[in-house]
Amino acid sequence: MNMSNNAAQPVHIDRVRKTFGEFVAVRELSLDIEAGEFVTFLGPSGCGKSTTLKMLSGLLPQDSGEIRFGNKRIDMLPANKRNIGLVFQNYALFPHMSVAENIAFGLRMRGWSRADKDKRVEQLLQLVRLEGLGNRKPEQLSGGQQQRVAVARALAFNPDLVLLDEPLSNLDAKLREQVRLDLRDIQRRANQTTIFVTHDQVEALVMSDRIVLMNKGGVEQVGTPYELYATPATEFGARFVGANNLIAGTLDKSSGAIQARIGPETVQPVSTHSNNVEKDGMDIWYCVRPEHVAMRPQSSAGHFGGRVMDKIYQGTTVLIDLDVKGLGTVRAERPALEVGDLGVGTDVGVHIERSHAVARLG
Amino acid sequence: MSAARLRLTPAIFFGRAALAVYLLIMLLWLTFPVVLVLLASFQGTLEVSFPAPVSFDAYKTIPPSYWEAFWFTIRAALLATGIALLVAIPAAWAMVRGKLAGRRIMSNLVLIPDVVPQLILGIALLTVFIPLRLSNSFAGVMLALVALSLSTGLRFTEALLEGLPDEYEQAAQSLGANKFTTFRLVVLPLIAPGVAIAALFIFMQNLITFELLFFISGPSATPIAIRLFSDIIDRGIVPYAVAMAGILVYVAIAFYTLVAVSLGPKYMAGSVMSRKG
Amino acid sequence: MTDITNTPSSGLSAPDAQDQGRHVSRRRLRREKTFYRLLTLPALTIVGLVAIVPLLLLFVGSLRDQRSGLFTLDNYVNTLGNGFFMRTLATTIAMAGGVTAISILMALPLAYLLARRTLLRNIVMPIITVPRMLPFVVIGYAMILLLAPMTGVANKVLMGLGILQQPAFILFDWPGQAIAFAYNGIVVATAVLTGVLMSVDTQLEDAAVSMGASKPRAFFAVTVPLATPGIIAASALIFTSVVTAYAIPVMLNGRVPYMVSLLISANLLTLQQQNLAYAQAIIVSVLALGVTTIGQVVLSRYGQRGGDK
Questions:
Q1: Is residue B34 domain-shared with residue B169, that is, in the same domain?
Q2: Fold for domain A235-359?
Q3: Which partner for C208 in A35, A218, C38, C213 could form a disulfide, CB atoms 3.0-4.6 Å apart?
Q4: Do B68 and B96 belong together in one domain?
Q5: How far is CA A102 from CA A9, A254, B163, B175, in A?
Q6: Is C14 helix (H, G, I), strand (E, B) or coil?
Q7: B122 and B176: one domain?
Q8: Are residues B131 and B208 in the same domain?
């Protein structure tokens, strides 16, 4: 059985823009997506990610810009002519139709023969592992199963692009983790170009080939999950993706290397992203991930002096709030085994394993 | 806690008694018309007494003109309900989903027949219908009912569509359905149960409409409510008229049963219909 | 991705293609709007022809002199200067106001019980729904069966019990009409208020009780204010239905309280003063619509202040 979408096409979004009155929902968004790629639009609510999705699907006309599949321009087509599969946040399964009828709806609109439809529906039920449930009504399925039906329905007619609008937000936490992997697996097997919209950074990091981080209608950063996590391009990115210690400082390029100066005496080497940080002496945030804050015996040399202020046990890891000389309050996250019975008030040596700088505005 | 509740102080006792008396009076008050009409209709006299022999004479002597009026009303009410819904459902869909400029104004315009007192609309229709030879005709009565039903129908279906998340329609479109197909395959089936209830309510409303039709009806187009009314003016109350009133009670009970079975009784309170007297 | 013929994928985009695309989608949107407009057309046409045009003609007629056909305000001036009409209007308003107040007061406790006691509600709902599905004429029949001086059940029972020495002649007098209107008013008020009170969260009252309010106090301090929009809506409904009622005033017509609807129909049908009747009809509609509108306005103000929903 060949599930892959042979006709997979690259998607080009070219300077697409949308305003509602004075409010700029999406400003000049451009993005090229490869065939079969899984791209996530990540951002807080109101950042323009859902508006972008609506414009791609044709449910909302854009003000300007172009959208193309390969070299076929589609932005002037109505939603029903775009050949885009859409998975809604609440799935929007037709309650008056069976699972099979739901999946076959797009095929029916395309005039498939009965036999072809039945065969395709079977294929999809297998793909989403719901064999034998074709005759059920959506209301008879669990949330996770409904979600898979919605995905099968969106994939059924070999769309050029599948759009997923926060499809995991209505599932409980445990199920969500499972469905994340399922969804990714289905997408890979179908080799389906996919855009996923979410406000959940963990979902974005786990599932995507690439992430488009959005804020206030604009793109903050485009990159692989690793790039977004390790080298945020902006202050927003540093705050939004993962927990970060942000310590105010200035950039110091006087020695040739790129360093962050915090307070009068502390100077630390930092990584930076592209053109975001360049000018010597400019204001920056010195960003340290909690897992990159290591603790050593206090006596050892070359470390900051610090004191344990608070300890939050989380099972596999422990969060430790440290008062670090020269840096201020820093949160560390260490494996529970490593931390042992380190008590509040203990003096420790603090070593920053990795750090990164982003421009500090205002 | 339970001991405190069981202790019956005089204040609580009189409070309870007063409440019981109030409830009893209200129940008697609310039931008396139906009870009296039914009792009188089975006694064949105008003087309800108890106990009394049961007689079906009143029902047997209902004159043909009454049955004519009854079926005339049913026909007009049915036809008006059908036409009104046929027109109101697409209009409501366009108003709710079409994002048309002036939508508020349009839907308020359609609500006019329901907002303007029926007596006044009836008089207005009379002045127009006489030159058009529509007064005292089936068509005239039917048209008046269509206007009224349209208002109720639009209000009902607008509420139904506003309660229907537009994702279903967006999903259908993204799957390749055009507007018309979306409406036929998705919207219509989803609102059908609500529309059926609406149809029942509108039909009943048409059946009992009086003030709107009083001026435009006449000897050759007499709704049953007006037949009952004019006879009491001409002849005073007569047993067979009471029997016909009894038949209308059965229709109302049948209607309630239908709606209650399909909705459950709790929906009868505060439904859209409650806004109408 | 290699063979791009239409437009470059990024950078220099041809402005012509942009414009053309925008043009195409704008035309599509326009077509969609036209489609929707067409769907509203039958409804608007019917209402226009069967309600709006006749009402406008009624209004125009009210501004014309019946003999000469000239435009004049005489019909209004004569009506408003006519003592009999104004007295009748005052009686009608008094009747409507009294019936409204009594209906709401009588219905409110019952509605509260129905809203809170599911079993009672299931029993009483058919009792208040069935009468609302009957022509008002049938209620009039019941009134006659109940209140007729010689044969009426009420008189017979009261005389049998020795409470009355002589039958009470209230049927074809204002009390008879008031009782008939109040019957309808109570039915309507119970139905509307039950629905409104059911939508008031019981937890609010419980919260008030937990903070030390007695049950009745909690009812008046919490539930009644939240139900006020419903009370206003029900009042407007009952008031206008009494002002414009026709069947009951004619059936239970007494000597003294002439209701304004009778006056209008007399002018229209027997006295052949159509244009005068039109003006009076307009005055009554303005009164009825005014009450409804005031109710709506108060309601929306209240809703804003209450801040719920």
A1: no
A2: OB fold (Dihydrolipoamide Acetyltransferase, E2P) (2.40.50)
A3: C213
A4: yes
A5: 25, 65, 21, 10
A6: coil
A7: yes
A8: yes
Query: What residue ranges of chain A are covered by domains with CATH 3.40.50.300?
Result: 11-230
Phi and psi for B135 in degrees, rounded to 5?
A: -75, 155
Q: Are residues B78 and B111 in the same domain?
A: yes
- CA-CA distance, A241 to B231, in Å (whole number)? 82
Q: Which residues of B touch A104 (CB under 8 A)?
A: none
Token pair, residue A336, equals 């529970």
| Residue segments in chain C with a per-residue pLDDT below the cut of 70 | 1-22, 254-257, 302-309
Instruction: Scan for tokens 């919260």, then name that residue.
Output: C207
Considering only CB atoms, A57 lies closest to which of B174, B186, B190, namely B174
A7 pLDDT more than 80: no
Residue positions counted in chain C: 309
Closest to A71 (Cβ–Cβ): which among C3, C13, C21? C3
Task: Give CA torsion, residues B253, B257, B258, B259, to 10 deg.
Answer: 100
How far does A88 lie from chain B, in Å, by closest CA?
A: 7
Give the integer Cα–Cα distance in Å for A338 and A297: 12
CATH 2.40.50.100 boundaries in chain A: 235-359
The last residue of one of the domains, among B55, B84, B99, is B55
Give the Cα separation of C95 and A290 in Å (integer): 78
Residue A267 is given by DSSP the state: E
3-class DSSP string for chain B: CHHHHHCCCHHHHHHHHHHHHHHHHHHHHHHHHHHHHHHHHHHCCCCCCCCCCCCCHHHHCCCHHHHHHHHHHHHHHHHHHHHHHHHHHHHHHHHHHCCCCCHHHHHHHHCHHHHCCHHHHHHHHHHHHHHHCCCCCHHHHHHHHHHHHHHHHHHHHHHHHHCCCCHHHHHHHHCCCCHHHHHHHHHHHHHHHHHHHHHHHHHHHHHHCCHHHHCCCECCECCHHHHHHHHHHHHCCCHHHHHHHHHHHHHHHHHHHHHHHHHCHHHHCCCHHHHCC
DSSP state string for A344-358? TT-EEEEEE---EEE
Residues B14, B76 within the same domain? no
pLDDT at B79: 95
* Distance in Å, alpha carbon of A305 to nearest chain C alpha carbon: 52
Sign of the C-alpha dihedral, residues C219, C220, C222, C224? Answer: positive
| pLDDT score for C303 | 56
As a whole number of angstroms, the distance between CA C264 and CA A201 comes to 73
Is residue A287 within 8 Å of A355, Cβ to Cβ? yes
ipTM confidence: 0.83
Query: Residue B92: which CATH number?
Result: 1.10.3720.10
- The stretch A121-142 carries a mean pLDDT of 91
Q: Is C243 close to B117, i.e. CB distance below 8 A?
A: yes
Q: Look at C24 and A76 and tell me if their CB atoms are within 8 Å.
A: yes
Chain A: residues touching B (Cβ < 8 Å): 57-59, 78-86, 88, 90, 92-96, 105-106, 109-110, 153-154, 157
Total domains in the fold of chain B: 2
- What's the pLDDT tens digit per position in C7-38? 344 444 455 556 666 677 778 888 888 888 99
Three-class SS state of C108: helix
B149 closest CA partner among B157, B139, B161, B160: B157
Nearest alpha-carbon partner for A156 in A70, A74, A87: A87
Residue span of the structural domain in which B36 resides = 2-55
Regarding whether B165 and B105 lie in a shared domain, the answer is yes
Q: Which of B55, B78, B94 is the last residue in one of the domains?
A: B55
The closest alpha carbon to C250, from C156, C176, C157, belongs to: C176
Report the CATH number of the A11-230 domain.
3.40.50.300
Q: Is C130 on the interface with B (CB under 8 A)?
A: yes
Residues B18 and B99 in one domain: no
Which residue in C3, C4, C21 is closest to A75 by CB distance?
C21
Q: Give bridge partners of residue A197 from the DSSP assignment.
A: A41, A165
